[in-house]
Structure formats: C-alpha cells, structure tokens
Amino acid sequence: MRTEFPAKGTPWEDLKRTMVDMGANDIDWRHGRNGMYVFYAGEDVLRVAKEAYTLYMSENGLGPMAFPSLKQMESDVISMGLSLLNAPEDGAGSMTSGGTESIMLGVKTARDYAASLGKNTVQAEVVVPFATHLAFDKACHFLGLKIVRVPQAEDRRANVKAMEAAITDRTIMLVGSAPAYPFGLIDPISDLSDLAEKHDLWLHVDACVGGYLAPFVTMNGTDLDIFDFRNPGVKSMSADLHKYGYCAKGASTILYRDKSLFEFQKFDCDTWPSGRMVTPSLGGTRPGGAISAAWAVMNYLGVEGYRAKAKIITQTRGKLQAAIEAIDGLEVFGDPKLGIICFGSPDFDVNVLWGKLFERGWFLSLTTEPKGIHLMMTPAHEQSVDQLISDLEELVPEVRASSENAEAPGFRYS
Question: Could you write out the DSSP letters of every residue in 25-67?
C-alpha cells in the first residue's frame, strides 16, 4: 500500500520515537555482531563524525567559491590520502560518495585517457581478477565497456600470467585489489604494475577496503606487498573513507598519479543559459557534511589513532583465524593480513552454519565460489570475538551431524 503524504506535520519528539522503534530489528553493529555495512571505531569517533557532519550539513560542495571552507577541507583530505598511499608530488584526486562512484570515475577516466591517445574505446576491455568487486561490472555496463574476468591463482589472488593472456588490442585497463572484497587478500600489485607498463595499459588499484587500513597495518610491523603508487604502473586508486577511515557515509576518494590524468575525470560544459559548470565527480550537489566529517575524523585520529585501531583489528582477526583453523571441519581461505576473513568447509554446507549464526544474532555475509562465511572486522569485534568463537565451536559439530538434512538459507545484498 502506498504511503500518503501527511496532511499535517508531526512533532519531532513523536517522530524520533517512531524512528528509534523502526530500528529495533536492525543489526547490532555497536557490539560487533555485524560483518559488513558499518565500521564502528568507538563512540568518540562517531561523535566527532556526527558533530562535524552537522556543522556543514547545509553547505554544498558543488560551490567552492561559495564555500571555500569545504574546498580547503576536501583538498586536505585528498592530500592526506595521496601522502598515505605514496603518490608523487603531482598527484591529484577528489572525494566521492563511495567506492562505486570512485571506481566508476576511475574507469571513466581510463577510458577517456585511452580515447585521447586515439584508441577506439567502444566496447573496449577491462581485464580484472575473478574476485574483483562488482562495481567494475557496473562501471563497464554504464560506460559501454566490456569486463573480462580472469580466474584466480591457487592462492586466490590475481593470476598475473592469466591476465596477460587475456590482454588483447581492445584492452585499455587492468585492475588489482588491495584487498579484494571476497577473501581479503591483496593482489600482487607489483607484478600487475610491471604487466601494465609492459603493455602500456592503465592499472587501477581498488583499495576501497584497504586504502585507509593497510598503510597503518604496515606501520605496525606487518609485512605487506607494496600495493600503492610506489609501483610506477599504478595510474589510479580508489580508497573508501567510510570504511576503515571511520568517516561518515558516503565518503570515498579517487586518487591519480598526476594532475594530467585527473583532468580526464572532470565534467566541463557550458551549453545552457547559466554558463560553464565544471564538476569533478558524478554528482552535482555534493553534501558538505560528508566532506567536513572526513576532515574532522582524519584529524581527530591522526596516524597514532589509526595505528591503534589497525592493531585491534589485526589482532582480533588473528585470534578468530587461529580459532577457526583449530575447529575440525573449518578452513580459512587464503592468508588474510588485514580485516577481512572468509572461511568454509569441505565437509558441510556453511550456509547452514550461517543460518545458525544468524539465529544467534550474527549478521555475516556469504561467498559462493567457494561457499564461505565472510566478515569484515572492525575495532568493535574485539568485544564480540570470544562469543563468535564459542558459537562456532558449539555449532560446527551440530551442523556437521545434521548437514545431510539441513536446509541452507540464502543471503543477498538487495
């Protein structure tokens, strides 16, 4: 039944109670019962994000002349991101509404750059590893490109040789992830960089998940493959602020090796009565609150704060990983080193285990190839990991014993 527009207004206190009641059955992300969607770093960080957002909630990032404050804050955020990911001094970029927009813009920029070199970009090809995020499929769908997915290597990371074999004269872009969402594994970006340079192709690194986590994990002493702009073949990177940057949604960054590449991202047009308009991203109006909240949280935490959060995450993931590997019938996929962990079983349908965990208040995600249970760990999981381990230790024998007759529930993102 269609909701009718209210004839009269309702007092805010009544509306607030209704809204709180509406959220009664939402996932408990403050206590680490979720495996996705919310990256909770504590009430203090959340307070900074909320208050900073409301300070500039009405301002519009579309108008830098009207709001030089937002222009300066976005410039600072981008500069911090470029520095963190070791971009050259001439690096550039912009904030976006999220990882999908960052990826869309990265693909669009690579396409327009290829066109400027005289290449035919109609149904041009983007070669990606099998575990690459579906946002690249969405980008190719809207931009008239063809995506070519290549099977993973045995370690579930990008198969560089297979990707090279997939390159044709129609290829304009290669993609690697740091890490890829399904298994939390960083692709061999250095090898992909060499491949991109060898074939004179654009390499985009999707660091939407790891861009504001992996550098701090490295600072804490974990040895990670070099995945950023230190690889000369990397032309662009996407990195989400509203994931492990702990900023308000929606906030992400799209970053480029130099300003000349960034110019191909922009929309510049004057064919209407109101004059020239230049916009860096897909949106027109750009919420000032997302920009101000990102600036505030990044300055509030600083390197010290982000390193502390990263330490909690990796230690908690390591604790869960060791426990999973000790449970007969479970195995961790690959060798994760950041916040994502994915595990499955050769003995039973883990979708059944997922359903049992869901009944106990856990909201985790699933992979399909292979079947696995997937979660992105945040600092909030430090308080819940022992209970998750206990539930797994109790439920796995039960599920194994009844797996032949158990009905597996489904999960989807929509």
Answer: TS--GGGT-BSSS-----HHHHHHHHHHHHHTSS-BTT-TTT-
- The tens digit of pLDDT for each residue in 161-205 reads 999 999 999 999 999 999 999 999 999 999 999 999 999 999 999
CB atoms inside a 10 Å sphere around CB 227: 29
* CA quadruple 240, 242, 248, 252: dihedral, nearest 10: 10
Residue 235 CA to residue 14 CA, distance in Å, equals 51
132's enclosing H/E stretch is none
Tokens of 261: 């590449």
Q: What is the CATH topology of the domain spanning 50-298?
A: Aspartate Aminotransferase; domain 2 (3.40.640)
- Which pLDDT value is given to residue 413? 56
Look up the CATH superfamily of 303-396.
Answer: Aspartate Aminotransferase, domain 1 (3.90.1150.10)
- For the chain, residues classed under CATH 3.90.1150.10 are 303-396
Residues of the chain with CATH 3.40.640.10: 50-298
The pairing of beta strand 171-177 with beta strand 125-129? parallel
C-alpha to C-alpha distance for 271 and 211, rounded to whole angstroms: 38
Could you tell me which residues come within 8 angstroms of residue 133 by beta carbon, excluding any fewer than 6 positions away? 99, 103, 177, 180, 181, 206, 208
Closest CA to 378 of 335, 326, 315: 315
pLDDT recorded at residue 409: 63
pLDDT under 50: residue ranges of the chain: none
Looking at residue 285, what is its pLDDT? 81
- Kindly tell me the sign of the dihedral angle through the C-alpha atoms of 215, 368, 33, 96: positive
SS3 407: coil
The percent of the chain in helix, strand and coil, each rounded to the nearest 5, is: 40, 15, 40
